[in-house]
Specification:
CATH topology: Rossmann fold
Strand order of the largest sheet: 3-4-2-5-6-1-7
Helix content: 25-40%
Order of helices and strands: EHEEEHEHHEHE
Distance between the termini: 62 Å
Number of domains: 1
Strand content: 15-25%
Number of helices: 5
Structural class: alpha/beta
Number of strands: 7
Length: 187
Amino acid sequence: MTASFPLVALDPVSPAPALRLVAQQEGLLQIHTAPFRGSFGAVLSQALRTAGLGSKVLVSQLLKGGVDQGLESSLWLCGRLQWLRPGVPFCISEPVPPRADELAARPLAAVRQVWAYSQEQLLSGSVDLLVLDELGLAVELGYLDKAEVLATLERRPVHLDVIVTGPAMAPELIAMADQVTKLRRGL
């Protein structure tokens, strides 16, 4: 035995409008910080995804040498992601010495070259996403001037997303950020 249900006529339904992503009108200044080095992995993943979706990305690792890369030998990934490191054969972890001899001058010049290029790309709006890895630590160790960094970030074009990573962030930098992510271990 089967149950029968009365048929009811339904009003025609008009199709829903197609969904569209709305372009973000204003970029964000994001900070990823931790009391340890190691917040870069998740940010690199986001940068690769952003480049893969068609945006132009610059990843500047201010203190990560080791490959003697420099501006002339920066890597390009996905055709839209430029990955830049200082042109020194080691990672930088010590403060700028008070007396800069020739050996100490090379890392200082290499970090400042990466910063100058990053600053130029940021202020011209040539990229959609700029990652500044260990920017706060570069300032704390004396490689970059804090006032110059803050003034540059304040003048960024409104569409530009900037992600700053690293263990040392000036309170003024944190205060100007739209989003701050603090990583922790061992909760």
